[in-house]
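Friendly challenge for the regulars: who can give me the structure tokens for this chain first? No prize, just bragging rights.
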Amino acid sequence: MSKLSIKVFVLAIFAANLAFAQVEMSEAQKNEFLNDLVLSFENEFLWKAKGSNIARRLKDKIDHGDYAAISDASLFVETLNRDLYILSNDLHLKIGLHQSQPTNSAKPKEFITQSLFQKQLITDGVYYLKFDEFPSLDSLIKKEINELMSSLENPKAIVLDLRDNSGGSDETINYLIGYFFDEKKKLATSYQWNAPSKEIWASPKDQSEALSKAKLVILSSQSTFSAAEIFTQRLQLHGKAIVIGEPTPGAAHRTMTYLMSDIFLLHWPYEQSLHSKGEQDLEGIGIIPDYLAHYDDAKKVAIEYIQNGSTKELDKIQLPPKTEIIKELIEALNAKSDEPVESFIANYVVLDNKGQVLGTLNKFRNIWNDKCNGKIVNIHHLSKSQFRAFIETAYGIIQMKITLNQEHKIKNIRYRL
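First reply, four minutes later:
Bragging rights claimed.
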């Protein structure tokens, strides 16, 4: 069954972990989906040689019986996502469960436009802006962006914080980029499967003359993802922005989500965008900052750069000290028995949320952790009650987002690549 003949759902790309609860799946449904997936790689992947190679290796795993004993759909999806990442090195290529999508899950437009950005005046003419998403471009989003950019009076410098930006709309980033160019400029060339290439241009706005002269600093992190990476690359390589922060993961390919059956969704990369400077692709590479700074320090370093015209580049990003919770988490993830996990939950998890945390940790240990030394490679302190831990595995870096209550007990843990 070709993806071209089935219904398309455009959904959020950010992949939170699925519930560990049992989801019904028949053997026939699983096998039909695997066959469709192999055919999709063989016939409809943007990179033909790579698609053929993935199809062959995936078929080998199927023939070897790697998925034969899995009867739970959520476990099947998580295992297959791990294997697809190993085969493709593409952070956008994912499987999902249609049943896991909550009804009316889309955010109301009013909520999106009100939460699109944060704005702070640092000193006279120096502004701090924070974008955590790039929602689909419509009249409301255009109005919100126009009002924001028009409110920047006599701009000398702008710190644009994308450290927590999980991506979104290519149309929105290109609209926003236009404010930083005082003339029309080719940004990139877009390539899609079975379609002609398309040039992407920056179009100046009424405020572009002033904003294009302002010093622009973009803050990046290991959680800057997808469209946020493309936005940063297009400005950095054209000499319009200095990037301060952490290298980004390299998730650059545009994706659509297809309903493959009553159960399975497929998040499928369908577009590659190559920057006009050197035809560069970000996938698997990411953004290399001009100045390295840890997530927790990037804003302070950026303000120092704006005030002094330079900053000391760090040879190595320094990690904040590990908390007791993280030390215990490492031990629990590396444990050969269930006892350390149970001890961790008893000591650090809110009573009402033990099931969710236990399911997350067990799934991580069962699927991702068979070749994991549990090394914490980074920690982001998002607030007093929330942090991200980055855990090194044989398959890639896993992000665990941990939320605490006022007593510093864990309310929930979520993870993704």
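The chain has twelve helices and 16 strands. Residues 4-20, 100-114 have pLDDT under 50 and may be disordered. Your move, everyone else.
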